[in-house]
Amino acid sequence: MTRSRSVLGLTFVATLAGGAMGPRAAAQSPDAIVAGRYVAADGSLKSGAAVLLNGEKISAIVPEADLSDTSEVVRYPGAVLCPGLIDVRSQLGAFGNAVETAHAVDPAASAIDSVDWDHADFVAAMQAGITTVMLTPSANNLVSGVASTVKTASPQGRHTVLRADGPLMFALGSSVWVYDREPTSRVGSLAMLRAVFDQAGRGQLHPRLQAFVGGKLDGMVVCGEAMDVSAAIRTFRGLGSSVAIGYTGDEHDLADELGSADYSVVVGPYSFAMTPRTLATAGAFATKGVSVAFAARTPMRSFDALRITASLAVRHGMDASAARRAMSTVPAIIAGVAKRVGSIQPGLDADIVVFSDDPLRLSARVLAVYVGGALVYTADHQARGDRQAGGQSKHLSDSAGRKRRGASRSGERSRASVLAGGG
Amino acid sequence: MSLDPGAPGVALGKPILNRTYPTNSRTHNRVDRYGLIGLCVLCASIPFIQPPLAQAQPAMAGSFLSGRALVIRNARIVDGAGRVIPKADILIRGKRIVAIGEKVKAPFLARHIDAAGRTITPGLIDGWSALGRVGRNGGGDPTTNAWDAFDRYDREAFREALRHGVTTVYLGPGGGGGINGTGVVVQLVPQEGHTAGVALDGTGVLAINLGSSAKAIKRASTFQGIRQSFRKAVEYRKALEDYEEDLKEYIEKLEERRDESDADESKEESKGESEGEVDDDEDAPSDDAPAPEDKPEPTPTPKPTPDRRAARGGTPRLADNGDDGDENGDKPGKNGDEDNGDGEEKEDEDELKKPQQPARDPASDVLLRAIDHELLVRITAHRSADILNALALGKEFNLDIVLEGATDAYLHAEALADADVPVVLGAVSRSGVFQDNEFRRHTAHSAALLGKAGVRWIVGSGAASPQSSRFVGFNTQLAVGHAAGDMDWLSRVTRDAANLLGVANVTGRIARGLQADLVIWNGDPADPGSTVERVIVQGKVAYVADSNVAGGGR
Known about the structure:
Chain A has 13 helices and 18 strands. Chain A is α/β, with parallel strands linked by helices. The model of chain A is unreliable at 14-26 and 382-423 (pLDDT under 50). Chain B has helices at 25-44, 155-163, 216-271, 278-283, 304-312, 319-322, 344-351, 362-371, 384-397, 413-419, 446-453, 472-482, 489-501, and strands spanning 70-78, 84-93, 96-101, 111-114, 119-122, 124-129, 166-171, 178-187, 198-199, 205-209, 376-381, 401-405, 423-425, 457-459, 518-521, 532-537, 540-544. In chain B, helix 3 (216-271) packs across helix 8 (362-371) and helix 12 (472-482) crosses helix 13. Residues 5-13, 51-62, 276-299, 301-346 and 548-554 of chain B have low confidence and may be disordered.
């Protein structure tokens, strides 16, 4: 009697303790995650593999058959493992407050300075599969400081800052000349910018500008119209360690100029109201070999905007693998954090989102999110209706090698966390 | 003789059959006439005698050929009701599917489409669309028809919708708070004369907007105004019914009097008296008797227009009694059975006053159709208070209501389920900022929560922009993606939408007897990489993809 009561008491205390430490602390990183398919480094869907984890990192991808019996394996039959999505033009936690427009050239600013780390949008973004965001100022200054790249959730409960010193952010277009200060025109914008680069090249102005002109700092130029893109290509030639151009217009012919300058492009987000030509631009660029990344501009647009952009681009001709890379791999390169995140590859952080289907399909949903190898979100079991094995997806599936979409995901393995709100 | 239209000298008007007939002058003329007619018929049919088409072409290309049956072979069919047929043929005649089966026997001269490797689904249905909207729709007038406000010639917009598999849309009147007119279901099939779509009969829906103003007090007063309009309609009907009864009584009394007067007349005649004013004597007790030919009276018409219309025949219900020719017999004010208390003499006169027909009220006529369940009532409401008001309106006047928008509906899911009120949701994914308005409590899980409580729901494009109609499939997928549980997005946007719009006996599924509204995809329609190759609407090929597949080029 006494013994069982004390066991009960111990269990009770242990549970309390476990709860007090927080679900993230209690969750341990599994040894391996297995799903029906995963998104490979080239953006294609491959099957039959297990992703091995080693603490916070991915250690290897091996055939599922090679898994040893002693590993702690989490299985998601029929699901798709995707690298955590990355929004490369975000103002999460900083909306409305991320740029100083008194002076059009403001290299000293840092987007990270205005972030509210406790904002609920971080959780909402993570639950939509966005595990990393690059915080950028609005495109209202010629030079608006440096962007910062942070994770939207972390096992340790604090936001991992992957990078705080770049890229340097520029903007060209009508959004720059609407304020009561210089420049007030396109002509003025480019004259000012050239003057700034001249001076920085001579060792004047802010060290960031000097580093950029000297080819030691990367940059991103957000452009409004196609002529702003052409102007950017002309003006930034030879500058910056790498340059990305933000452009969500419909001028397909820019692909040649962009290709020859070896600039990547940040496109999006796309909306259902845009013209067919605009929606086809991402595909037109990708077909010509330009590196394309999608942006969701969270929180101004919905948290589904990244996948909506990808779906619309694919429907209008973009290659599906390129579209998947555009949601995580290319943004990581543009943000300068490709050595940490962006694809499911050995050596990178285990930031993995488990989708119920190909993430390009808008009917796919997030089943679980791992950041740094730890489960930080699992979709709410109770909200799930009756899942028939196979169900609808059996009817519409046409690939012989595809596993059946089975019942729900592991979740039983760890008790962790439906953070704020659940499914 | 060659009928090549390019050949010169096809002489019109020259009788060519002349030679084979005797040259009798009368026959000559007849032959001339017949020959001329025959030639005209032949020439008129030249455009339709084209090299036989192996593949079906868009409908406008040859109307003679479009009368032929259409067979689609070897298709994988997803029928919209959750069933998949791995391989079958579909036979279409006229507008309808007449057969689905393994090897359908093709009738003579049928057109063929080989759909091997393709997937066929029903046409997608956007239950809340603004396709073809130009500028702002008006509002506030229940008698307007939404289809009149849309650009039915906007072939580009309609084609872009077909390109993404949308064949049928519900178009509602826009407008602010109030009763804004009737919406209608439109199918995107080219018609004669450049029209790009056709409205389906019997699909009218009365559209009411409860949610447009940001001010609560304005929304409340709008709602009261709407209730007032419905009450007015009910009273209007009562007034019409009363009028009919009164009119009947009046006619009967007239008959009685005439009979009496005839009887008296014959009595008097038999007495041998002849007075000039016999007729008038009989009518003497009431000076205001119906004898318009004798007494030109001023025509009191407090509302000239309706009365004239009434006199000309009125509404069908009143047609039989409306035209007694008593244009001058209308008296102001009272119905026949009112007693003005002036004494016995006057009572007679009052009884024979023709009752005045209530003025026509077209707006109330529309509302009565809603009360009679001929029209569904579609209420746009987002906030909780407006949703509850909508339910109350439905209950008070016994209306069949559908909620549109319904952002807060998930908070009242049980009440909606109990009242069996279905919901049309709009954009599923919304930004979280700038939402200090009717979308403040928006959630992408709305559909899931409603479904769990047993509320019927579909997803439309939301009518925020005309162009988003084409992506109703994607929007529906988002709703399904945010719903826990496996849900068939395709059935939601085909069969379920057809049910909610009241066109399930026409479209929404691939089944024998239903209309042929089909989309031929070159892959799995759930895969965004799949594109539409062909769309058939009402049995006609309404869309064929350009050969330039990548991005469509436009």
